């Protein structure tokens, strides 16, 4: 997989968890200097980082954002004042966990997407000393509904199903893991959803102890073995993909991320669904990815070429992310795209472009609102700084960052829906396609 700075700008649209390339040699940075392929010392969570390395890493983060951050006004924040508050605390944050948490707090004061600190022990594909294999209960997933963490889906004939767990049950606790609060869910559903998923992960062959509220709000505790590989984020090399006909004349597409292998899967699915009157594209909880699939699907749906997004650099340089269009070979049916608070980055660019041009209607809940174009740099600690270097807006100049894509057909799942195994968002999308509304 190429590093982000070698991709054309559309391919760099990643939500944090999917943004880090694995197995790729990156430039190491010490202070403001960086030398290609230099070896970087990494630290475990509880290891002490020498003071001089902490100092160099702190300055590197602060100066990189000072010089390369997409917004030279920092959204009205005083970046010098922020430095003055955090710099004295570098001496006290001695362990890797404490130090990278401090850096994370500092950059998060800017309040933008694609701006984050990854500690060495949190890096995907890290060294054997820092990485851990994690597992999760088979066929069980959680979601955020009505401000709470609920069991969203459970595959029949799995240990979770056989233990009596069902979709719609409220998750009270998972062992000692910290679940997101209602306030945290409202503040950032994407981050809260990630935290909820992480609660299911643990050591191989360990037991996940779940306390839930059943359909009658009775509390019960069950233990479920962790036997399935846990994947923190979508695999940008290989997407999970499904398609089917919900009705004889209504097609449905779902994929977990815009991965590099998505285009041929989309081609095969569209060929099979070409005779349908309408198509539902489910981008709920799709955090983003790389651009080839976005380019292809946009072109397949649109006869005319168009602009997916406009990138504007710190210096004011403007570039267009375009799709080609398919002329008379474009899919002619109606299109409804599903989004929610977990739809981010490339999913938002795609949905916003199709909505703005009138090619598709959007159903569900407002998306995450994180589309800034970002890159990454390795810190002297072996951690990673991800920062946005360009703004990203729709073809008509409308902002998605911090706002999200607003649905034409607002509809939210309820706990009652899950308990009845209903997806009312899909139902409304089908109705819109069949009625032409």
Question: Could you describe the 3D structure shown?
Answer:
- The protein has 437 residues and is an alpha+beta fold.
- The protein has 3 domains: 4-122, Histone Acetyltransferase, Chain A, CATH 1.20.920; 135-229, PDZ domain (Pdz3 Domain, Roll); 241-372 and 390-435, Alpha-Beta Complex (2-enoyl-CoA Hydratase, Chain A, domain 1), CATH 3.90.226.
- It has helices spanning 51-68, 79-86, 96-108, 159-162, 182-187, 189-198, 262-273, 291-301, 346-356, 415-419, 424-435; strands at residues 28-30, 33-35, 116-118, 135-137, 140-145, 148-154, 170-174, 207-213, 219-229, 241-247, 250-255, 278-282, 306-313, 318-323, 334-339, 361-364, 373-378, 384-393, 409-410.
- The strands form 5 sheets. It has a 6-stranded mixed beta sheet with strand order 10-11-12-15-16-19, sandwiched between helices.
Percent strand: 15-25%
For the sheet with most strands, the description reads: 6 strands, mixed
Rg (CA only): 22 Å
CATH architecture type of the largest domain: Alpha-Beta Complex
Q: Distance between termini?
A: 42 Å
Unreliable stretches (pLDDT < 50, length at least 5) are 1-39, 125-131
The coarse silhouette is: globular
Mean pLDDT across the residues is 88
- Tell me the CATH superfamily of the largest domain: 2-enoyl-CoA Hydratase, Chain A, domain 1
Helix content: 25-40%
- Number of helical segments with 4 or more residues: 11
Strand order of the largest sheet: 10-11-12-15-16-19
